């Protein structure tokens, strides 16, 4: 099965993500997954170091999620969510409200992280419109940030460091500033808001870790400052926890480490344990109430076709069960310590700029990667699945990964980076 027919036939028709199709290295064909393993058509077996873009937090093919998905598949795999509701969606909305702070009570489902952020932005803008304030046409986001690839979300990503610079002049222009990390940046941030707050609808950030922008870490104190300034200048605060939510940073949600809460939160990726596409935008009661009116135009006019998909909701409920039953946060703490210990020797390697770990996120930042395809090939030769980007080699493994598997991943990184790249 080294060269299955579907591979050759299909590659001429597929358009792959984040890929220059003319110069790409051929992708590897996967035929099966299990726990932290990916099985390839050529017989190789890889240890997955990134849990399918951070989604498979319980590992692949978890039998409990599989069982719940199978039960739901037999009953009702999908039904429209317009004028009809169903048990999996309502139970999931209730459970999300229960594990989030008291005032985050209203859940809008969609089917991808980018759309969840689009909905959050739309909610924030319309919140002010419904209150009669038509001046707030801007959003405030941060350098190093990433919030998705759809048009509205591209407009709030870092315009210089991100992947969307080609669209400069096409996208709406919002405010992109530095995170208030130190005295100087705090003072600049305060002055900026003093001058511009009346035209801003909301502040949006990824709490604790700016993921695709470079796995950039910041302290919980930054989130406290954002909450303070949002309150001071009467702005909504959005936390994009699509990457950081569901245990990835060491707490169930990253914002918990700051003991503050947003007005809107976006969730996806690990929401279903990496099994189905599902996302949620959760808002406070105050925001929800601003949409209640006798005027139909004040409603939130948004409705993804597959929103609240029953099959995906059943998987998400099963995933939440596993967080309660199998002590995932304790596993994350052990992964964090092991990565801290085992990635530390990389600091001494030539070309390494930084090594950092938070929760189940381990990062080796290089001065530069001169040959990305070569680096990816060298890692693949170690029978691991690790996908560096920009100047970052990172690990975001499943929380159920074994210590030996994790050791294989960290050893592979050290071995490959010890070679000329």
UniProtKB/TrEMBL annotation:
It catalyses: (8S)-8-amino-7-oxononanoate + S-adenosyl-L-methionine = S-adenosyl-4-methylsulfanyl-2-oxobutanoate + (7R,8S)-7,8-diammoniononanoate. Its main location: cytoplasm. The modification N6-(pyridoxal phosphate)lysine is found at residue 269. InterPro entries: Aminotrans_3, Aminotrans_3_PPA_site, BioA, PyrdxlP-dep_Trfase, PyrdxlP-dep_Trfase_major, PyrdxlP-dep_Trfase_small. Pathway: Cofactor biosynthesis; biotin biosynthesis; 7,8-diaminononanoate from 8-amino-7-oxononanoate (SAM route): step 1/1. Pyridoxal 5'-phosphate binds at residues 113-114, 240, 304-305. One of its GO terms (biological process) is biotin biosynthetic process. Coiled coil: none annotated. It is an enzyme of class 2 (transferase). Substrate binds at residues 53, 146, 269, 303, 387. GO terms for molecular function: adenosylmethionine-8-amino-7-oxononanoate transaminase activity; pyridoxal phosphate binding. GO terms for cellular component: cytoplasm. Its cofactor is pyridoxal 5'-phosphate. The record marks 18 as: Participates in the substrate recognition with KAPA and in a stacking interaction with the adenine ring of SAM. Its EC number is 2.6.1.62. Keywords: Aminotransferase, Biotin biosynthesis, Cytoplasm, Pyridoxal phosphate, S-adenosyl-L-methionine, Transferase. It comes from the Bacteria. It is found in: Cytoplasm. CDD domains: OAT_like. Belongs to the class-III pyridoxal-phosphate-dependent aminotransferase family. BioA subfamily. Catalyzes the transfer of the alpha-amino group from S-adenosyl-L-methionine (SAM) to 7-keto-8-aminopelargonic acid (KAPA) to form 7,8-diaminopelargonic acid (DAPA). It is the only aminotransferase known to utilize SAM as an amino donor. Homodimer. PANTHER family: ADENOSYLMETHIONINE-8-AMINO-7-OXONONANOATE AMINOTRANSFERASE. This is Adenosylmethionine-8-amino-7-oxononanoate aminotransferase.
